[in-house]
Structures are given as C-alpha cells and as structure tokens.
Write a structure and sequence with these properties.
Helices cover 78% and strands 0% of the residues. By secondary structure, the chain is mainly alpha-helical.
Length: 72
C-alpha cells in the first residue's frame, strides 16, 4: 500500500505543476504522508521532474528545509 501512496503523490504533483504555490503545498503534504525512504525517492524524482521547470526549483529548496527540521 505505501507504494500506491507514493505513486499517487507523484501523479498529484505532476497534475498541479502548473501552479508553483499549489505544487509547494502538495509537496509539503507529501512529506507528512510518505515514509522516509519514499521521501528520498521523491527527491530523486523531483530532481528529474523539475529539471526543465525553473519555476518549481525553489520548491526543492523548501523540501530540503522541511527535512532538515524533521532531522532527516
């Protein structure tokens, strides 16, 4: 079941990627719902997904900040 949540999270992020603010909110929500190893996988996927989307790059910085606060 966790894999289903991870896959759903990716598809949800893809669908809201046109709005950076909504993308950021969904990403923050994902960090609360996913397991630590899934968050690592999500980071790798995000690096690939945001490669040609400079408007979403600052969301990656926010993800790093959230993980530092959690101690991950």
């Amino acid at each position: 079941m966790p894999r289903m949540i991870y896959d759903y999270t990716k598809s949800e992020l893809e669908s809201v990627s046109i709005d950076p603010n909504l993308f950021k909110r969904k990403l923050k929500k994902a960090t609360h719902n996913l397991l630590p190893y899934e968050i690592d996988q999500l980071k790798n996927w995000l690096l690939y997904f945001t490669n040609n989307k400079p408007e979403l790059e600052n969301c990656l910085m926010d993800l790093e900040f959230i993980n530092q606060r959690k101690g991950a």
